[in-house]
Specification:
The protein has helices at residues 37-42, 47-53, 94-107, 123-136, 175-199, 207-221, 230-236, 239-245, 298-313, 358-371, 385-391, 403-416, 449-458, 495-506, and strands at residues 3-7, 18-26, 29-32, 63-67, 76-84, 113-117, 164-168, 224-228, 253-259, 267-278, 318-328, 340-342, 348-350, 376-381, 396-400, 420-422, 440-441, 466-471, 477-478, 489-490. It is α/β, with parallel strands linked by helices. The structure holds ligand BES, manganese (II) ion and zinc ion.
Length: 511
């Protein structure tokens, strides 16, 4: 990963390939943000005027590169837009800085070292810039190379992420700043781990290879791990995981990966949907709906990454991750619409649509997680297209069996810069899942499809356990133009929310 250091050097004298400065949208044109005073001075106090002449406005995410003035060691200046200047006595909020740092880092792909001279009002803003820079300096290059790498156009040749970041304006000897940078590094590395897993195509990321990656990480970070293979799952009665996975040549797995702290008083269970490819099964998805379905394991990736992050940060809380891994494929051995599965909980489910598979694998994992009586369960899943229609591509939905917990998660997501919205669980939607032959069907009314899925999951959560469900179908995989620290492909959605939830739980802030 990109190396990041806090530096006391001046932006003008530091040896780097580029210096990043902030530019905000003022009433009368662009204004240079705090942190770039020495840079502006080297431009004879005319940096804002130069930027305006170059067409810069200071709008969010805008990037302007210019050759630097004499007296500045770095050859290039990169001005990144911060949007509207904050009101007097107020600072840029964390997400604005995170995105600006991300845009700058993306624009500097192919560059070796950059100094970031953005406005750092406090530790929080330093942490945000560090996170944004490290998340922006990401590239998924595992499948590039050989002939294509340097040849032709595209971004193949310049895809190496920015290698070194010097963060200016912080306090390198201050404990809080050091801790903030360490946290940002651990967090970004884990978000990037989730992104990598999501970006690996399904021919290489199977339930088995995903489980192997979890095993390797468990070894590296001292986590306990248990992997149930298809035989153990069949023997254990995991009808949901078996039913979804049985059509594929790549059999299912249930992974339990756990971080323990000797002084922890609370245990958090995280459950992730890990469909390594969702073809829809016999209820096959049409072309146009299956090209990105390697992303259907994004929930499991987020859970896995969050458990590792908790370990790296040494949080005083126990965190157990459950990865429900299966590939949903049509074949002669696949579950048919109309089949009835006997789930791990003992409940029976009539599978009306084999494309509503996420809730089936999650149901088994939720029941299993509940047996250990955790203080709370949060599941994360790319569960429904309905949630995408409701909330768009950047916002995940939060459902819960506890209003306060749902509100807490919404607040936490907001705090870490992830867009979310609380969704209801209207009881009247339950009857749409009544089945003439089984305890429940895996599909209900079309209207409110995301909420119906939440109601289905709730039936498999143990009595009296606080539970929330994050439907990340929209934000998990980014298909549009890159922006801020968000690249095309896997985003690592929900990792930061889960980690902050673990931190809050460790601090005793929650129930
Ligand atoms: N994995 C999909 C949901 C999805 C859609 C994720 C778009 C990411 C982007 C899920 O398994 C699915 O197919 N859901 C169905 C459920 C329906 C059959 C009840 C859906 O949303 O259409
Ligand atoms: Mn599906
Ligand atoms: Zn799916």
């Amino acid at each position: 990963m990109t190396a990041l250091t806090l530096s006391t050097s001046s932006a003008t004298t530091l040896r780097a390939d580029a210096v990043v400065v902030g530019v905000a949208k003022g009433v009368k044109g662009p204004v240079v943000a705090l942190g770039a005073e020495a840079m502006d001075k080297a431009f004879g106090g005319k940096l804002a005027a130069v930027l305006e002449t170059l067409g810069a406005s200071g709008g969010e995410g805008e990037v302007t590169k210019l050759p630097s003035a004499s007296g500045i060691k770095a050859p290039v200046v990169l001005a990144v837009g911060l949007g509207d200047a904050p009101a007097k006595d107020e600072d840029f909020d964390a997400e604005t800085l995170r995105r600006a740092a991300g845009s700058a880092a993306r624009a500097l792909a192919g560059t070796k070292k950059a100094a970031f001279a953005l406005p750092l009002a406090d530790v929080e803003s330093a942490a945000a810039v560090a996170e944004g820079a490290l998340l922006g300096a990401y590239a998924f290059t595992a499948y590039r190379g050989g002939e294509g790498k340097a040849a032709k156009g595209g971004d193949a040749g310049k895809s190496a992420p920015l290698a070194e970041v010097a963060l200016l304006g912080g306090k390198p000897r201050d404990k809080a700043y050091k801790a903030a940078v360490e946290r940002a590094e651990a967090l970004a590395a884990e978000v990037n781990r989730a992104r990598d897993l999501i970006n690996i195509p399904s021919n290489d990321l199977t339930p088995k290879s995903f489980a192997a990656q979890a095993q390797a990480a468990a070894k590296e970070f001292g986590l306990s791990i248990e992997v149930l293979d298809e035989k153990a799952l069949a023997k254990g009665g995991y009808g949901g995981l078996i039913g979804v996975g049985q059509g594929s040549e790549n059999p299912p797995r249930l992974v339990k990966i756990a971080y323990r702290h000797s002084k922890a008083s609370k245990t958090l269970a995280l459950v992730g949907k890990g469909i390594t490819y969702d073809s829809g099964g016999i209820s096959l998805k049409p072309a146009g709906h299956n090209e990105t379905m390697k992303c259907d394991m994004s929930g499991a990736a987020a859970v896995f990454a969050a458990v590792v992050a908790a370990a790296k940060l040494g949080l005083k809380v126990n965190v157990t991750g459950w990865l429900a891994l299966a590939e949903n494929m049509p074949s002669g051995s696949a579950t048919r619409p109309g089949d009835v599965l006997r789930m791990y909980s003992g409940k029976t489910v009539e599978v009306l649509n084999t494309d509503a598979e996420g809730r089936l694998v999650l149901a088994d994992a939720l029941t299993r997680a509940s047996e250990e009586k955790p203080d709370a369960i949060v599941d994360v899943a790319t569960l429904t297209g309905a949630m995408v229609l409701a909330l768009g591509n950047r916002t995940f939905g939060i459902m819960a069996n506890d209003d306060a917990f749902r509100a807490a998660l919404h607040e936490i997501a907001q705090e870490v810069g992830e867009q979310s919205w609380p969704m209801p669980m209207p009881v009247e939607l339950r009857k749409g899942m009544d089945s003439p032959i089984a305890d429940i069907a895996n599909m209900g009314e079309r209207a409110g499809g995301g909420l119906v899925a939440g109601l289905f999951l709730q039936e498999f959560v143990g009595e009296g356990i606080t539970w929330a469900h994050l439907d990340i179908a929209g934000p998990a995989f980014h298909e549009g133009a890159p922006y801020g620290y968000t690249h095309k492909g896997g985003t690592g959605s929900a990792v930061r929310t889960l980690v902050r939830l673990a931190e809050r739980t460790a601090a005793g802030d929650l129930g």
